[in-house]
Amino acid sequence: MRALWVMIASAGCSAVAAAGPVFFDDFDGDALLPHWVQPPATNWDYQVANGRLTVSRLRYPSSPKSTGNYTGIGAGFAQQNGDFRMDAWVGWEVGQSPHRLDVSVLTASPPSGFLATFSYNSGSLVFGVNGGAARTIPAPVAGIHQITIGREGSSFYFGLDGVHVGTFADPFQAPAGGIYFFFVGPYPGTLAPLTVDRVQVVPVPNALLFAGASGCLLTFRRRCITSAS
């Protein structure tokens, strides 16, 4: 996994900062875009369709000594030394434990590590900072939900569906430069699908404005899909 972090961070260091989001993916099309560092195809079954990435099966390591199967994808973005906001729209169904989807912000410089994580974990939500505080709250009902990880000064704040749920001090205050999705499912057992609908990273102070506008775009796109079906 360390090698994956290094690849993600290297991609982020080479990115060019631009106005608006420094990273955006709404999973349009029928394949993952090249900016994602992906696991071997034999490790998982997934589909990119209808503007979503849906993970339907995890195949690695499929060992009786392991408590479950897992895999992950990551991508780099232009290094953020100051405040920023990451929003990800993710979804889950009721599944057998372990059943987990993590969204993490990574440091910019190799060897990369986690700065902050927001996780759906078998019916609960767990969020916190690496090397610092964390909190667990009940997960909302199955479906698509917006999770937010933002840095403001020397703290990380966390949000769920537009509502602030916690703030913790940032122990490292390191530059951010990557995002990582980690999927976990039971072995043996059947994985309840895990979904990533959209993700964006925006420097503050533009983050709040863009988040509102992109929410309208999401609603519009869903209406178009519904009308076409």
Task: Characterise this structure.
Helix content is 15%, strand content 48%. The protein is mainly beta and 229 residues long. Strands 1, 2, 3, 5, 10, 11, 12 and 14 form an eight-stranded antiparallel β-sheet that branches. Strand 2 and strand 3 (52-58) form a beta hairpin. Residues 1-19 and 209-229 have low confidence and may be disordered.
Give the SSE map:
Elements: H1 2-13, E1 23-25, E2 44-49, E3 52-58, E4 68-80, E5 84-92, E6 100-107, E7 114-121, E8 124-129, E9 134-138, E10 143-152, E11 155-160, E12 163-169, E13 176-186, E14 194-203, H2 207-228
Antiparallel strand pairs: 1-14, 2-3, 3-14, 4-13, 5-10, 5-14, 6-7, 6-13, 7-8, 8-9, 10-11, 11-12
**What is the general shape?**
globular
Element-level helix/strand string: HEEEEEEEEEEEEEEH
The chain-level mean pLDDT equals 85
Q: Radius of gyration in whole Å, from Cα?
A: 17 Å
Sheet having the most strands: 8 strands, antiparallel
Number of helices: 2
Multimeric organization: single chain
The SS-based structural class is mainly beta
Quick one: how many beta strands?
Answer: 14
What is the helical fraction, as a range of percent?
10-25%
Which residues sit in consecutive blocks of at least 5 with pLDDT less than 50?
Answer: 1-19, 209-229
Range of strand content: over 45%
How many angstroms separate the termini? 40 Å
